[in-house]
Amino acid sequence: MSWYSPRMSVSSSSSAHTLDAQQTPAAPQQPIAPRQPVPQTPESVKDLGPEVCYDVGAFRELMRQYRQLDDGVTTRLNRALARSRSSGLTHSPSLLYDPHSSSSPYLSPSNDKAQAQASQPPARPSDLGTSTYGSLPPAACLELWRELTGYWRGRQEVIRFCTATVDANADLQRVREAAEDVQRQRREADDSSLLDADAARVAGSSQSAGGRRLQVSSSPTEPPSRSRAETSEEALRRMLHNEETVDSIVRQRSLQAFKARCNLFRLPEGASGEEREFWNNGGTARR
């Protein structure tokens, strides 16, 4: 049976989306956090904070560490399968067995019939002909499934947190710029009034002396260009979207590896909609 490892070779493919040094978004001096708690990361993954969302290198390193946890799950799947084969917990290729019979491959001296009935889902007509070879006990698969989906959910929360952080700081920046525009317009209005008064005095002096009238331009000063700030914001959002796409591919590979080793596993009753989405396609990348 071919085996797929979700090792992050995909991460290297994301280099095609790598931002140039000149496009790296500049973080605010003290980026604010959105109105939501900061997601907690596992011990082997660096801590997340608003400043990490603006550091492209730090954010991608965090995601790389987080995705490596999928590798740990698939490694444990391989080891558990090897142990189950060596201990006789699996059969050679055959038609689907009756999981409640005394010949169930999940029964052993340490597991009685009641335990097997509790952990093994009932056989379904659609499962007839499915090989019982190379499949882990459902209880072990359920534990690894919950761990795997916990990592997937955690990475999605990291991306959503950084997206919300960028949006919150962008909104704050727009408010600050609007306030600066109001203050600038007030200063220009005050300066214009003073210039008009001075111009009137100078004009009176010029007329009495037969001189020329002074003309004062009242055109407002052009506001500073914000194209650079907008480019940085767009570049950061594009980076987050690319990471979300990469993570979707990683989840699909991990899901394929899980289903190859837990081919008799079924989602428990009452599984959430998100869990079912994970099971069906590994979750799709969302903007």
Describe the structure.
The chain has a domain at 53-90 and 134-205 and 225-281. It has 7 helices and no strands. The protein is mostly helical. The protein has helices at residues 9-13, 50-53, 56-86, 113-119, 138-208, 227-261, 273-281. Helix 3 packs antiparallel against helix 5 (138-208), helix 3 (56-86) packs parallel to helix 6 and helix 5 (138-208) packs antiparallel against helix 6. Residues 1-49, 83-132, 180-233 are annotated as: Disordered. Pfam families: MIX23. Residues 180-190 have a biased composition (Basic and acidic residues). One of its GO terms (cellular component) is mitochondrial intermembrane space.
Topology:
Blueprint: H1 9-13, H2 50-53, H3 56-86, H4 113-119, H5 138-208, H6 227-261, H7 273-281
Helix pairs in contact: 3-5, 3-6, 5-6
